[in-house]
């Protein structure tokens, strides 16, 4: 299949490891992804909380562009995924807002029917491509690696998406097939605080400390994430957490597509592992193709 | 002061205005009217990862809304610290979209220009929007720099080592880049803003039903009459 790729602002640069690994994994699986030409910021949760019509109009511009391509949208960032999906839901349920949005889009010669599907790469990998097709490309197995699968809050909520809202399992299933041991991780959908790291730092540090604690207590070697915000909070603020709480965490944080890339034997650089701040640890390093 | 005294069957002018803006926002939430079905069970509060840091719990927000205490809500820390994780919404047995209700409360507070106890959230939101308008995409460097300039300059020094790491791993875009169709996007935004203003409700007349359990029911009725 072919998908319209919506990387979103954070994948462009600060989270290039996610972007690079998504592209590389899809290339390996012979799936075509075409970046939506000249996409704009989806507005994230911030805009949604400020102005409704405006936020719907800006996220709809992307969906309208994808509709012209005749493809489903693939959005790896949880926040983009939620915002775009939610836009669809609101436009389909509240006709008045739908016509308002189209009135605004018309200013740029665009129109959106509300029908473009928004998908997360985890969903596509597991449900469109399937584990069997992926197994054919596996070069290494993850025997002996213990992972904590961290889904974060927004890819499975608020509406029904592709996995369970309280206990999603697709990532668990995927990496078990790759030979990894998935540790007990009851905080798999607990919030990382998102933007609170900027606005209420103390609270966000506590949330992330609890996540790291839970993963380490259950023996995880790495935390595997699906969201750029979770990834950033857990990785970039680990030092600060250690400072504040007198802990000594050194837990590598990997995107699920990076770990999958390792399994496929893809080169370290190609899947953006060179952008990690935290040493990957012996087990992971021994599997990485340089 | 007089306005803070609560007389039964009397709604202060401030309260009426706040409810009017808020209820208008609630109409734009799919199934927003479910707010009237709250059974005050507290599942939302119990599921919230940050409720310990709130001054009013999510459950209390709904109780205060019913009681005609919008102003107390507007002044709370709660609406700004909500992290939009949707835990409450997922678990509410009455299907109330609490996260969206909190968005609606935030919008009400911003529209009515309430001075919040946590002004930094509004600062961030405004800078985010400014950033998006200017480039069409978010330039995180500019956003964070401006945010700390406005809220806590000293903190920027604490970020220097992080900035270095980001630079070393090529994770910083030094200059913001505009999208090509920036002009077209601006036209969309401008039009959407005009539409938003067009919808701003007219003054709400006092009615005792605007508080309490009937508040939302009344609103629906009006909508029907209007159609
Ligand atoms: S979980 Fe729902 S019903 Fe229970 S108190 Fe919260 S909003 Fe009300
Ligand atoms: S969405 Fe907000 S109020 Fe609801 S559980 Fe999450 S942080 Fe708490």
Write the layout of secondary structure elements.
The complex is a heterodimer of chains A (290) and B (227).
Chain A: E1 2-5, H1 9-12, H2 16-28, E2 32-35, H3 44-48, H4 52-69, E3 72-74, H5 78-93, H6 95-106, E4 118-119, H7 121-129, H8 131-135, E5 146-150, H9 170-177, E6 181-182, H10 196-199, H11 201-217, E7 222-225, H12 228-236, H13 238-245, E8 253-255, H14 256-263, H15 281-287
Parallel strand pairs in A: 1-2, 1-3, 3-4, 5-6, 5-7, 7-8
Helix pairs in contact in A: 2-14, 4-5, 4-6, 5-6, 11-13
Chain B: H1 13-26, H2 43-47, H3 58-67, H4 70-74, H5 78-81, H6 87-91, H7 98-111, H8 119-135, H9 140-151, H10 153-158, H11 160-168, H12 182-198, H13 215-226
Helix pairs in contact in B: 1-7, 8-9
The complex binds iron/sulfur cluster (2 copies).
Protein architecture, described:
- The complex is a heterodimer of chains A (290) and B (227).
- Chain A is of the alpha/beta class and 290 residues long.
- Chain A has 2 domains: 118 residues, Glutathione S-transferase Yfyf (Class Pi), Chain A, domain 2 (Up-down Bundle), CATH 1.20.1050.140; 155 residues, Rossmann fold, CATH 3.40.50.11810.
- Helix content of chain A is 49%, strand content 9%.
- In chain A, the strands form 2 sheets. A 4-stranded parallel sheet of chain A has the order 2-1-3-4, sandwiched between helices.
- In chain A, helix 2 packs across helix 14, helix 4 packs across helix 5 and helix 5 crosses helix 6.
- The model of chain A has no long low-confidence stretch (mean pLDDT 94).
- Chain B has 227 residues and is mainly alpha-helical.
- Chain B folds into 2 domains: 105 residues, Fumarate Reductase Iron-sulfur Protein, Chain B, domain 2 (Orthogonal Bundle), CATH 1.10.1060; 74 residues, no CATH class.
- Chain B contains 13 helices and no strands.
- The radius of gyration of chain B is 20 Å and the shape is globular.
- The chains are: A alpha/beta (290), B mainly alpha (227).
- At the A-B interface, helix 1, helix 3, helix 4, helix 5 and helix 6 of A face helix 6, helix 7, helix 8, helix 9 and helix 11 of B.
- One iron/sulfur cluster binds next to helix 2 and helix 3 of chain B.
- One iron/sulfur cluster binds next to helix 6 and helix 7 of chain B.
